[in-house]
Amino acid sequence: MRLRITSKVRYFRAQNRWEEAIPEYETALASNPNFVFALTGLALCKLSAGPIEEVTPLVEQAIRLSPRDPYIGARYSAIGMVHLLQSRTDEAIVWFEKARRASPAKPFDHLHLAAAYGLSGDLDRAVAALAEARRLRGEGSFLSIARMKGGGWGSGSSKTRAVFEATYFAGLRKAGVPEE
């Protein structure tokens, strides 16, 4: 059953159909409440589709169940993103820094830090984090907000897109990412 659910979920997620993936994860969790993949998948879908206030408890449960997970940095980053989207930039920075320390070679943790530092007004750190994200990702990375949006960034519900615009993308603009 897990493989069928996983492939169906991947299909929905690949098409940014977050709302349709949520019940699939919930079904998996009903049969195994300790299924870390389903917990984090459900959290990411709720981050994209809403309600984002339900994300942190799911991710915290996944962290408790698998504290040495090789994806622990991604878990920290998800909590940081919730804080950022809720305009709690100081808390977001703490979680993004934890994510960066857990996975220093992951460019997205640096990019998220750039957004959070930009939003907080710490432009020196925002610019440095953006430069490191670009260095790690490679030439031509994170060149414009328009390109990032075209790649599916902030592709959730209209409410989630609006929150990403007001926080995440606003922070990246302050860090130096141009619109076009």
* Major beta sheet summary: none
Spans where pLDDT lies below 50 across 5 or more residues: none
Q: Report the span from N to C terminus.
A: 44 Å
Number of strands: 0
Work out the helix count.
Answer: 10
The overall average pLDDT, rounded, is 92
Kindly summarize this structure in a few lines.
The protein folds into 2 domains: 1-69, Serine Threonine Protein Phosphatase 5, Tetratricopeptide repeat (Alpha Horseshoe); 93-180, no CATH class. The protein is built from 10 helices and no strands.
Give a verbal description of the structure:
The chain is an all-alpha fold. It folds into two domains: 1-69, Tetratricopeptide repeat domain (Serine Threonine Protein Phosphatase 5, Tetratricopeptide repeat); 93-180, no CATH class. It has helices spanning 2-14, 18-31, 36-49, 55-65, 72-85, 89-102, 107-120, 123-137, 145-150, 158-175. Helix 2 (18-31) packs antiparallel against helix 3. The longest helix is centred in the last third of the chain and has 18 residues, at 158-175. The radius of gyration is 16 Å and the shape is globular. The N and C termini lie far apart (44 Å).
Helix-strand blueprint:
Blueprint: H1 2-14, H2 18-31, H3 36-49, H4 55-65, H5 72-85, H6 89-102, H7 107-120, H8 123-137, H9 145-150, H10 158-175
Characteristics of this structure?
single chain; 180 residues; mainly alpha; Serine Threonine Protein Phosphatase 5, Tetratricopeptide repeat; 2 domains; globular
